[in-house]
Amino acid sequence: MNNRWRFLAIPSLLISLLSTALAQAPLPESPAPAPLPEVTVPVELPAPPTAQAYITSTPAAQVSYGQTLVPVTFFANGLGASVGPIDNGKWRLLYFGRQIDFYPYQKGALFDAQQVTLPIQPQVINNVLYVPLGAFCDFLGVKWSAVPNKEGKSVFLLQYPAAYIQDIRSSKQNDKVRVVVTLSNPTRIVASQTKQSVGFQFAGARAAAVPTYTKIDDYLVPNAIIESGNWNAGLAVKLNYAAPISWFTLGSPPRLVIDAQRLFEERSLDNEQGLQITKIRKGTGHGPVQMWVVKLDPKEGWRVKVAPGGFGVLQRAQTTRLAARHKAVLAINGGFFAYDGAAVGTVLINGEWVRLPWQGRTAVGFGPNGEAKIDNMQTAAQVTFSSGLKLPVRELNGWPDKSRITVLTRRFAPHYTLTPGEMAVVVKNGKVIAKPGSGIAPIPEGGFTLVASGGARPYLDKILRGEGANLKIQPIGWPHIETALGGGPRLVKNSKIDVASENFRSDVRVGTGPRTAFGIDAQGRYIILVADGRQKFYSTGLTLNELAATMQKQGAVDALNLDGGGSTAMAVRGKLVNRPSDGRERGVANALIVTRG
Predict the structure, then answer these.
(1) How many CB atoms neighbour CB 280 within 10 A?
(2) What domains can be seen in the chain, in order of their start residue?
C-alpha cells in the first residue's frame, strides 16, 4: 500500500445520528450517495537497525605509517560503490550521491567537492591502487574494524545503516531497459549476474510494502522479483537473453539504477585450422543477433568456387556435405533455388554456364586469379546456325515455356519428355542430329537440346538436320570471369548502402531473418558473413538494411545478399558452425566453397 495505512475518517457521533434518522422516517428515493473518499497517512516505520558484514580484502590490505590501506575495489565489492579512473590520472568513487575525487600519490582529495587532506596518500602496490580505508569509510558513514584471521587474510567488519526498499519502477528506452529501486537510506549492495538474470543482495534491507513481483513486460527484461527476509533482501532482474548490465547508485533519494543494454556488440576471434573467424553477438532493437564474419585475401592463395548440389540442376545437398565433397576449408550456402531444386539466377562453374542470370539481378563473379566483382549481371546468349540463323536464348536448364526458346544441357537431365505442342532440336558435336516433335528428346553429352512451343516454335521449324550449330553465352561487362553465382539484392555499392528490390518476394526483402552475404573490400579481399535468425532470444536475424550496414561496417565496398532463411549455413572443414533456423541443415542448390592453393 505504498507505505500508507488506509482508513475511513467518519466521527462516531455522526454515525449514531444517521442511524436514528433512518429508523424514524424513510428517506425519499434518491440516487445512492457517493462513497466517502479514502484518506491516507504515511506509515511511520521504525528506524532501520545497524547492519554489519564481514568483508575480505583481495588483494590483502597493507599498513603504512599506522594507516590501513585497501584496494580501491574493496569499496566496489564490499559496499557496491562505483569506482574508476576518469581523466588526467584522477579517480572517482561514487556511493549514493557521495563523491570522492583523488589522485594516486597525492594527499589532497575532494569529498563532495570539498577539499580535504588524506592521512596517507593513495598508492600503487604490485600494480594495485590502494586507498586509506579509515578516511573513505568515515566520509561514507561506515564504521570498520579489523578482524583477526587465522589464515592470514585481511578481513574487516563493516557496520552501516540498514534500509527499507520503498519503491521499484522501470522504464523502456530505445537503447536500454532501466529499473530503479528507491531506498530509505544508503546501504550495502552486492551484485551478481548470470545469463538469465542479474541479482542484487541488500545485506541489511527490508522491502516495505513493495510488490514481490514487478511486471516489466519487455522483450529483454520480462520482470523483477524481490525477496525479503529478516533484514536481508534480494532483487532479481530477469533476462530473456544475456545482455550487458550496468548499475550505479544515486542520492536524494537514495536509489539503485540498473540498466539492461539493448544495443551492444560482443566479439570473439576463433582460429579454425588457420582460418580466422570473427564471432559477433549483437544486441538490436528487436533482440540479439548471432553472426560470423570471415575475411580472406586472394593474394594469399584463397579461391572461391561454386559447388552445385549435384551434377544435375535439380539436385540439392547440405552445405556441410558440399564442403566435405570438395575438401573445402570454408563453405556457405549459395544462391536462391526453386521448389524443385533448380537454382534461380546465374550459375557459372569453371567456365561452364549452368544457369543464366535472372532479371538482371546482382551476381558475384571471380577471375582466374581470384579477383572478384559484384554487379548486376546480364548475358548475350544465342545459338548461331550455319544457315545464318541466330536464335536468342533466354533460358538455360529451366523448364521450357511458350514465350521463349530454352536450351537444355546434360546438367538438366539425359533427356526431356516433350509436352503437346513442343518440338526440339538436338545438337551434338556442333551439328543438328535430330528434330523430334513428340516423345522423348535426348540431351547428348557434348551438346545441347533446344525446346520451343507456341510462338517460338516456328523458329525451330526452319532448322535443318545436319547444319552446324554453336551456343555462345557472353556476360555483358564481365570479361575474364570463370566462376559466378547469382544472388541479390545488392547491399553495398561503391561503399554506400544501396539496397534495391530486384523483384524479390517480400519474404526476402522484408523483415528479419537468417542472412548470408558476400562482399569485397577496397583491397579486393573477400568478406563472408552468416547470421542466424528466427530463433527467439538466441538470434532474431537481420533486415536487409541491417545486413547492408553490417557489411559496410566490415569494410565492404561492394556486397550482395545470398539465399537466407532456413538455407543459411556456414561450414568450416565440413563442420557446421551456425545454428540453422529449421533446427537442422537444409539441402541447397549450390554453395560457395573456399579453398587454398
Answers:
(1) 18
(2) 50-160 (3.30.457.10), 163-261 (2.60.40.3500), 278-351+483-596 (no CATH), 379-475 (2.60.120)
